[in-house]
Amino acid sequence: MQSSQAIDRIVIVGGGTAGWMAAAALAHVFEGAGKSVTLVESEAIGIIGVGEATIPEILKFNARLGIDEADFLRETKATFKLGIEFDGWRREGERYFHPFGAFGVDMEGVAFHHFWLKACAEGQADPLETYSMAWQAARRGRFVHPQGGPQSPLSSLGYAYHFDAALYAGFLRRYAEARGVVRCEGRVVEVQQSQAGDVSGVVLEDGRLVAGDFFIDCTGFIGLLIEKTLKAGYDDWSAWLPCDSAVAVPCERVEPLSPYTRSTAREAGWQWRIPLQHRVGKGYVYSSSHLSHQDAEDALMARLEGPPLAQPRRLRFATGRRRECWKRNCVAVGLSSGFLEPLESTSIHLIQSAITKLITLFPSQTTDEGLRREFNALMEEEFVTVRDFLILHYKVTQRDGPFWAQVRAMPIPDRLADKIALFEQTGRIVRRDHDIFSESSWLAVAVGQGLAPRGRHPISDVLGRDENRARLAAIRDSIWRTADALPSHADALAATMRPHA
């Protein structure tokens, strides 16, 4: 039977982005509460350096910690991100944009896209992205912070960041240590457990014991505590997301500073482009069953826009999630909790989400089973939602080639199949309570990949053909005029980082 004890000593095993995000957040919320936070990491163990592109939720994490945006941008070499451009995902040579922010303006109490669908049926509509403030700013290389009232096109903007993950970890390390977190350098060689089976401490290579009451596993794919020790189990989702490898390399930036991520479909997967202030992150995510590691690396290096700044790094992974992200007195955060390819820039968000949920449900005693069940249920729902959104990109495609034929033909989870069918039949997008992706996100990808609804909301017919066309034209013109007047991304970035008088 598991014994209960108060939680006063929190030990984070593993550093990197996940470890230092957890340390910073815990240091902030428990400051002055009499709890100690220790982080164990070894400089001899390299970090994966999870994706450098994020989604808008990262703004909330930084804000909760009281981080000044200008300081963050300077310290992490960050740039602004208005969304993701998908190149060649539907067909070779076609592009679409997943914006952070709404399309158009909702009318008559229903979503804008139903009126757009009405115009499409009448042969009068521009492409959907025409009505996106985020895309019209992004394609012009411009940026501004969201502002204005509901009638302003700028109020619909959302944004996130591209940043150097290693610099972000260092930035948060300084933040955390200033608030009492103790960093312990050393490689873990043994995990100790109590008679009840809880983790009680980790032994370092030099013989030191770091004991604790509650542990956070940030040890990456290996899952040293959550899997190697506690055997939490793993659900493998590679049948739906067959890419199992990646090669990444930074290069010099020679193009203008674009405020968006680019994802380009390739022979056996896709390639990313992430622009930072000081360099560009490039990578190729691919299926090793359809492309050799060397061929993937050669393809990536041949497409660099500038000289490489490091040797390419290869990664292998199994897409899926830990069956129990919280087992006994240990919570897995980051890659130790699972991995979903960074197609929609969710790697850092899943770290943030786990930390936020853990803080909300943080137990007083190590035996709070109800809190543990709730946390695991919430994380499962989050992983499944992201999984299904990623599958949508692969399932709905008209690209040629063995890899793309395989993903187009694969059976998909029932809940995603139902979602696709509902959209195709009625134009409706139904989201669950914990869906991190907005209706606009699902819409952008569904339409961009080629789904064409046969129906729409009947309220869209309250507007006549001419009035509907006039309203759409007015929305389009307002967005385009506003986008034309915005500062360049580089100027907006410099202005934000400029020290205040």
Write up what this structure looks like.
The longest helix has 27 residues, at 369-395. The chain starts with 8 loop residues before the first strand and ends with a helix. A hairpin with a 7-residue loop joins strand 4 and strand 5 (95-99). It has helices spanning 16-29, 57-64, 69-76, 112-121, 133-139, 165-177, 224-229, 293-302, 347-360, 369-395, 402-409, 414-426, 439-448, 465-484, 489-497, and strands at residues 9-13, 36-41, 79-81, 83-87, 95-99, 160-162, 182-185, 188-193, 199-204, 209-211, 214-217, 234-236, 245-251, 261-266, 269-275, 280-286, 313-316, 320-322, 326-327, 330-332, 338-339. The relative contact order is 0.18. Helix 4 packs across helix 14 and helix 9 packs antiparallel against helix 10. The chain is α+β, with helices and mostly antiparallel strands and 501 residues long. The strands form five sheets. Strands 5-4-14-15-16-13-17 form a seven-stranded mixed sheet.
Would you tell me the overall average pLDDT?
A: 94
Radius of gyration: 23 Å
Q: Give the neighbour order of strands across the main sheet.
A: 5-4-14-15-16-13-17
By DSSP, the count of extended strands is 21
Q: Identify low-pLDDT runs.
A: none
Number of helices, counting only DSSP H or I runs of 4 residues or more: 15
Structural class by helix and strand composition: alpha+beta
Q: How does the overall form come out from the CA principal axes? A: globular
Q: Roughly how much helix do the residues carry, as a percent range?
A: 25-40%
Reported for the largest beta sheet, the result is: 7 strands, mixed
CA distance, first residue to last residue? 61 Å
Oligomer: single chain
